[in-house]
Every structure is written in C-alpha cells, then in structure tokens.
Design a protein that fits this description.
Strand content: over 45%
Number of domains: 2
Mean pLDDT: 86
Low-confidence stretches: 1-9, 11-26
Structural class: mainly beta
Number of strands: 41
Length: 762
C-alpha cells in the first residue's frame, strides 16, 4: 500500500509542479470581434489565442481578448476550419474590433484531431499515427454501426466484435478489448466484459471518427494498450439542421447454393433508418438523434432488431459565455440472436450449431461542465453513468453491469511555447450475472499529465500516468506508464515523427470469473490472470502533395510492439472442449504501414480517396527462443513475407491477419457519385488446432490455395435535389464465400437502397 500512495503522490507532485510554471500578465487593451464562416454564420467555441492569453467565442460568435499594449499575433482555430493568424497592434486602454471569417478546411494536411492530446491539434503535427474518417466514408456506404465504419481504416479490422489495430489483438470472444472505444472523449466499454457494443454508438450524430494507433495508456489508461477509437459527434449551429436516412435491402444467395437454408419465399433482408435534428434555442443547444434496424439474418437464428435514441444539450449563460454545461444521454434496446459456431465448414456453415437469443438495454447519462479562462486555461469536468442489462433467467444468460465514471482535466498554455494538460479520473463499477459467482465490484483511480512544446518546426511531448485498479478485494494493481514523442517539419509539407509509449490492460471480471457453455463448448475462468503490459515504438514520415486542385498526403510508418503477459484465449480439451484465457509470457509484433489519402477536383470531377497497406509479424516468443533475437526475428519477418505459415507452425500469435489492404475511392460528377470500397485480409495462419474437431478444417482445406480474402463493395448515388439523395449499394459484389474467424461465415452479396434527406438552413 505504501508503494501505491508513493506512486500517486509522485504523479500529483509532477502535475502541480508543471502547473506552477504558468504565468499571468496584466491586460491593458482589448481586442474583440465576431467570428463567422464563409456563409456568414457565427461560430461558437472558436479558440482565440495570443501567446499566454486565450479566449473562446460565445454562442453568438463574439470574442473578447485582453492584451498588453503592443504588437501581437492572434490565432483563431476551430475543428474543421483552417486556422487563421492575424497581427494586431494595440495601444494602452484601446478597444479594437477585428472580425474574422473562417474557411472550412479543404486541405488534408489541415485535419484537426483531439484524440492524441485530448484537445484540438493539427493531425500532421501529432507524434503518433492518427487516422480520420470523414462523414462521407461511412454515411455514403450505409455503415449501420461503428464497427462497419472503422474497418475501412488502413490497419484496422473488427473480428466478430473484437477490434484490432496493426495485429495487436486476436479474436478473444468479445471479452477484454485492447482498443479503447470513446464517444466524445468518454470511455464506452462495458464494466463487466470490457467489450465494445458497437451498435450503441450514435452514428446518426457522427461528424468524424479518429483512430489512434499504438499504446495510449498514458492518456487513456487500461484498455488503450493497442490504440483508441474516438467517435466525435456534432453540435447545433445558428440555424437548424435536419438529417434523415432510410435504407432497405436483401442478402443474396451464397455462391455455394447448398449453403442456403432459407426458402425461396423468405430471402434474408434488412431495413432501418437514422435521423438527427440540431437546433439552437436561445442559450441552449439541442441535438437529438434516433436509429432503428431490423434484420432477418443470413445466419440461422441470428435475427436482429434494435432502436436507439440520443440527446445532447449545451447551455451557455449569456453573462458567462466562456462557461458551458449540459447533460447528454443515450438509450438502446436490442433483441438479437447470437451465432457462436456453425454446424460444419461446408454446406451447413450458415446453420447454427448452438447459440442464444438475447435481449439487452443500454443507457448512458453524461453530465458535464466546461470553462475557458481569459488567460489561456480550460477546465473540463465530465462524467458518465453507463448501464448494460441482459435479460435472462436461471437457464439463459442474465447479466447487469453499472459503471460510474468521472474525469477532470485542466489545460494551460504558458511561456509561449508550452501547453500543459493534466487531470484525474476515477470509476466505480458494480455487476452481477448467473454466468459467474457472486456480485463483483471494480475500482479505478488515476492521475495523468502531459507537457507539450511547440516552436517553429518542432513539436515534442512527454506524458505520464499512474493508475490504480481493484477487482473486489482480492486483486489490486498499480501501474505507472510514460510516453514521449517528437515531430519535426523539415519542409513545408513534410513531417517526420517518432514516438514511444507504454500500455497496459487489467483483465476484466468476465475473463477472470466467467464459467459458461455455448454450443457444447465451455468458457472457463482464470482467476490468476495477470495484467498485461507492453510498449509501442513508431518512426514515420508524412509527406503532403498536390497537383492542380487535388491535394493529399502520403504517410509511411514503421512500428514495433513488445508485450508481456498478453491475454489470449486458447481452445483446450480436458473432459470436454473449452476456451480459457491465459497469459502469453512474451509477444512481439512489428511491421510497417503505408497510406495515401487525397481529395480535390480533376476537371469537373471531385475525387476523394484513401488507400492503405499494413504488414505485421505477430510472434509468440515463448514458442521459439530463436525469435527473441532481433536479427533472427527480422530475418523471418521479411524472409517469410509472402510465404504463409502452415497450420502446425504455431510460432505466430493466433487469429490475426498479417497482410491488410484498404481502399475507398469516390468520385462526384454533376449529380452522380460513384464509389467503391476494397478490403483485403490475408488468411489467419494460426488458430487453435482443437477447432479441427468442429470441422473448421473443411473450410480451410477448401481455401488452402487461396492467398486471402478480397472483398469489393460498390455504390452509385444520384442527387435528386440539393437536399435529397438516393443511393444503390452492393456489398461483397463478387459474392465471396469467406469467414473472418473460424466457426462463423461473413455475409454473401447484398443489395440495398438508401435515401438521405439533409436540410441545412445555415
């Protein structure tokens, strides 16, 4: 306990020592004005900064900045708009008016992100790899949940609900995510399983998705060992905005027609809709959203039905425009089948061996308060109550989990070149289920701090976090972690970056205590599981390019991950078949990734494109001591680059794809939009050999000569009016017969129609 107290004290001392460096200067003149966009609409929340002094525009776009007499450079920045810098000269006692018009960012290198440092920052100046998905990618492709959207990102895959970034995670049956999932910077992982419920995320309000690649525990704590996915939602503007989408479609017959289990009169189909409305009512911003989805699944007994409503509010007092407060909320009810394992790997692969029918409801309530001081400081107090409830009885799974989360963060710009971000957060969770004995409680408390330096072409940062985790009274863990990064701009559109960060993840209640059975296969608990930890290093270059009116960037990164006590599920046999989570003593994952992203006009055609290729080499170092030698490891990594490992070569970590390709290409020509999304995943070369008993060998033997899965989606849209748009979308256009993981097939070809109506009065 003394070590716990010492660690927490040390971190608090570190935080408050840095805080004392901030200085306050006298103000002798006033700069004020109104900030609007190109359409003349006022913009609230714009950051206005000059040296150590800063302010924020109020709900009417007005700002006031108190400065010393003299000449100053004032910067105006806001998410989605190009940053402007103005030089002003003020006299003592003078009040000067400077109105600003911000232009929406059209250059890829001006993308603004928040996930890397927990505040708005130019993505090109970040020290880690961060991908940004704009709304066109997931709205135009009819991505019905967050999982479907993020799979379009280079290096990212979602296998039966489990997110993996650059091969950092295998398939672990829904428990214990190594990727932190956030909605507007707040965690959205369940308390009992540590898993992400992708369908709960309010896609109807999404304005962008940020994917941070690599260990991020220094800022986000446990479960950010492999990265962060942050769904950003939007706010109301000066005039109302209404966005409604309806979709409906059918799933076609598999290429192998003998897999079809339904009759000719009951073809699988799906239908649903998204809706949102944003409006400013005096000093209050109100945003509401809704979604429903019904699906008669191509997988037997896996039908889905859900509805979801979301509410966001923000109140800005007229007398205190720098203060904002409100309550956000989300509710979803779902009834769904759970397809766990097929009957066989051939003609009955779409038939269920066993599974369950589940009913859930989810609710989150998020009170918050934000304050921007007049000396460049900001305070954020955010909280979340997240409840998941799975209906059941003595013979079917029943579970309930509750999570209460609180985070306070403070940011201060000082000494002209420095920014300090510090904070504390805590959570308490209580849960119970008939899948594990007794009620359980977890507790987390943490303090974190990050100091950033920015001067001319240089950006650098150092950060630290100490976190205390407890499960019931028997398990306690204290973990300090650190990160450091450097970004250098040698030329106007060239950015070099390098970063090193530590990560960790505490095993969940389900991993330690779950004792259940599905399809005749048990899932056994492991109360002795140890917390996993590791570090990630990256060296990368981002190069901007442009010709005519087309601009973009090329990004190439080399990454290296080392992990200790990585938790992996293993399929075993001992008086019956069962899965059990175990610690892998030592694991290494290294590789490289190249991305090309661009947008612009070529003649009358507007083009948006994103392409990426990722290669990773995931090895269980405990399987062969030779791989611990870095030279031998690199030799095998490149020597076997194009050579698949056989099923008996168990040196690779399980349930991973070594090669991944992603491409999204979209072109607008007058009223038409034509687009395609391409996915390539190499075969999983390592999986539990006991699965052969469940006929997965039939599927894999049939595909033995294949190099992997290449999936093609196509779409065509037509703008009926400025507000209305209709789209025809074909997914898995080649009707490929493929499975992302042993035991469950992916969808055959599907056809859908989408109608979208967007009324933006601004």
């Amino acid at each position: 306990m003394s070590r716990i107290v010492l660690g927490i004290k040390s971190t608090f001392i570190f935080i408050f020592f840095l805080s004392f460096l901030a200085e306050v200067s006298a103000q002798k003149a006033t700069l004020k004005g109104v900030i609007k966009d190109a359409k003349g609409v006022t913009i609230p929340g714009v950051n206005v900064v000059s040296g150590m002094t800063g302010s924020t525009s109020d709900m009417n776009g007005k700002y006031t900045l108190s400065l010393d007499a003299g000449t100053h450079e004032v910067k105006f920045s806001f998410l989605g708009f190009e940053t402007q810098k103005k030089s002003v000269t003020l006299k003592a006692g003078e009040t000067q008016t400077l109105d600003i018009v911000l232009v929406e960012s059209s250059k890829m290198l001006n993308q603004v992100v928040v996930s890397g440092s927990r505040y708005e920052k130019n993505a090109a100046e970040e020290t880690v790899s961060i991908e940004v998905l704009g709304t066109s990618i997931f709205k135009n492709t009819n991505s019905v949940d967050l999982a479907e959207a993020v799979q379009k990102t280079p290096g990212v895959n979602v296998v039966d609900g489990q997110a993996t970034i650059r091969g950092g995670t295998g398939f672990s049956y829904g428990a214990g995510s190594r990727v932190m999932i956030l909605v507007d910077d707040l965690p959205m992982l369940s308390a009992d399983m540590g898993s992400s419920y992708w369908k709960v995320m309010p896609m109807e309000l999404a304005e962008g998705i940020e994917i941070l690649k690599g260990a991020s525990s220094a800022m986000y704590g446990s479960s950010a060992l492999n990265g962060v996915i942050n769904l950003r939602t939007g706010w109301a503007r000066e005039k109302p905005v209404t966005d409604i989408t309806f979709y409906s479609g059918i799933t076609g017959t598999p290429r192998n027609k003998y897999q079809k289990w339904w009759s000719d009169y009951s073809q699988p189909f799906f239908t649903g809709g998204f809706g949102s409305h944003r409006q400013r009512l005096g000093p209050v911003d109100v945003v509401v959203g809704a979604n429903y989805h019904y699906e008669k699944s191509f997988l037997e007994s896996n039908d889905q039905f859900r509805y979801r409503v979301t509410l966001k509010t923000r109140y800005r007092p007229k007398k205190k425009p720098n203060l904002a407060m409100g309550v956000n909320g989300n509710f979803m009810w779902e009834r769904s089948g759970r397809f766990f394992l097929w009957q066989d790997g051939d003609t009955s692969s779409l038939r269920i061996s066993d599974g369950s029918n589940d009913q859930y409801y989810f609710i989150s309530v998020d009170p918050y308060l934000e304050y921007s001081g007049d000396k460049g400081s900001t305070h954020n107090l955010r909280s979340r109550y997240f409840r998941t409830y799975r209906y059941g009885n003595e013979t079917t799974p029943n579970s309930i989990s509750n999570l209460a989360y609180l985070d306070y963060s403070y940011r201060k710009a000082f000494k002209k070149y420095f920014t300090l971000s510090s904070g504390v957060n805590a959570s308490y969770a209580w849960m119970s289920s008939n899948l594990y004995p007794q009620s359980r409680q977890t507790l987390m408390a943490a303090a974190y701090s990050q100091l950033e330096f920015k001067h001319k072409r240089w950006n650098a940062l150092v950060g630290a976090r100490v976190e205390y985790n407890q499960i019931d009274t028997a398990y306690r863990n204290v973990r300090p972690v650190f990160r450091a990064g450097l970004n250098y701009q040698p030329a106007k559109y060239t950015f070099l970056r390098t970063s090193w960060g530590q990560g960790y993840r505490v095993p969940t209640v389900v991993e330690r205590f779950l004792d259940a059975s599905f399809a005749g296969v048990g899932i056994k608990p492991n109360p002795e599981l140890r917390a996993e930890r590791g570090w990630n290093y990256e060296l990368a270059v981002k190069q901007g390019f442009g010709f005519s009116n087309f601009k973009g960037f090329f990004d190439f990164a080399v990454f290296w991950m080392e992990n200790v006590d990585m938790v992996e599920y293993s399929f075993m046999f001992d008086n019956g078949f069962f899965f059990k989570p175990i610690n892998v003593e030592r694991a290494r994952i290294a590789g490289f990734e190249g991305n090309i992203t661009g947008q612009g006009n070529i003649g009358p055609v507007t083009i948006r494109s994103m392409f990426g290729y990722t290669y990773n080499f995931p090895v269980d170092l405990g399987k062969n001591d030779k791989y611990r030698n870095i030279g031998f490891y690199l030799g095998e990594m490149f020597g076997n680059f194009a050579t698949p490992y056989g099923p008996q070569d168990t040196v690779l970590l399980k349930y991973r794809n070594r090669h991944m390709v992603r491409l999204d290409l979209e072109a607008d020509y007058y009223k038409f939009t034509l687009g395609t999304t391409l996915y390539y995943n190499s075969f999983m070369e390592s999986f539990d050999q006991v699965l052969y008993v469940f006929d997965v060998d039939t599927y894999f033997k049939k595909r033995a000569n294949s190099k992997g899965d290449f999936i093609v989606d196509l779409r065509l849209a037509y703008n009926l009016t400025k507000q209305a748009r209709v789209s025809f979308i074909v997914k898995n256009a080649t009707n490929l017969n493929y499975a992302n993981r042993p035991g469950m097939m992916n969808s055959p070809i599907s056809y859908s129609l989408q109608f979208r109506y967007l009324l933006d009065r601004n």
